[in-house]
Specification:
By secondary structure, the protein is mainly beta. It is built from 4 helices and 22 strands.
Amino acid sequence: MARRSRLLSLAAVLATLLGALGLTALWQGRAEAHGVAMTPGSRTYLCQLDAITGTGALDPANPACQDALDQSGANALYNWFAVLDSNAGGRGAGYVPDGTLCSAGDRSPYNFSAYNTPRADWPKTHLTSGSTMKVQYSNWAAHPGDFRVYLTEPGWSPTSELGWDDLELIQTVTNPPQQGSPGTNGGHYYWDLALPSGRSGDAVLFVQWVRSDSQENFFSCSDIVFDGGNGEVTGIRGSGSTPEPTDPADPDPTDPTDPTDPPHTGSCMAVYHVDNSWSGGFQGSVEVMNHGTEPRNGWAVQWKPGTGTRLEGVWNGSLSTASDGTVTVRNVDHNRVIAADSSVTFGFTAKSAGNDFPAGTIGCVTP
């Protein structure tokens, strides 16, 4: 059921761990937003779709995605929506250096630098010049702001470094509508984009999301080709069709959630991080975010560990394991309440056969 829907929800971001002590600090911090372009798909988004497997392992078929995984690591790819700079404040040219636009100027909490590599074999979305397309942009954490949409100038080559002089601003959209709740599989902002006429060949659609309630900005590079296509994607596993944030087998195609996945609970969002790994095991952490405007009293997080993985110990949380291996971690007394727009973190150790990431969705559930 809805394998693609499950793929969209694997994520990891900003958890803190005092590994030398074998403890996780009880950390409450500001809850960050998350998002990149899903249509046309960004490099990180499409490489994640290409790489993810049902076991929690990563196995890209695309050579550019494989090289990016080798260079930037698994945590970056599982954080496909976290290409961010917390202090950008709407600044672009002159602040984000040329050659680093696809990695937020290398200021993200994760190493996305490999996704700047000039090469012609990144996954591509096929479009028609002069047509109107519907842009979809992930709303893992929804916030007000502007989406600045740029397109490379005619004559730009994918084997050359991407710089600000290569780009033309073609649209700015403020507070577009959303489909699907923030923190759910496939939830996104959407709007219509009129593509310029007279274009052919390769290009990059670059989007800078400028939040109006924060200095935090997000950056997204989508490789496209003007060849008469209608949104088809090539260069990823099973490619040649148009990826959708929903699955045709879902009971309600307008609802991007999968009824077999953990039911997300509105303003609560959980994201997963592998902090350290060794032969036969690893140490991880999960940040539980409250994106609401009121304190959250009580929380619980649920996921299915990767094949061959078993949690052994949890701190700053209370663990229960179902007969099918699904784990649920609930708050303990000292971190029951999460302040508005803040987060707490719990940590764990696990035995593993190498599949350190979840085999499906990780999400907040009813405590």
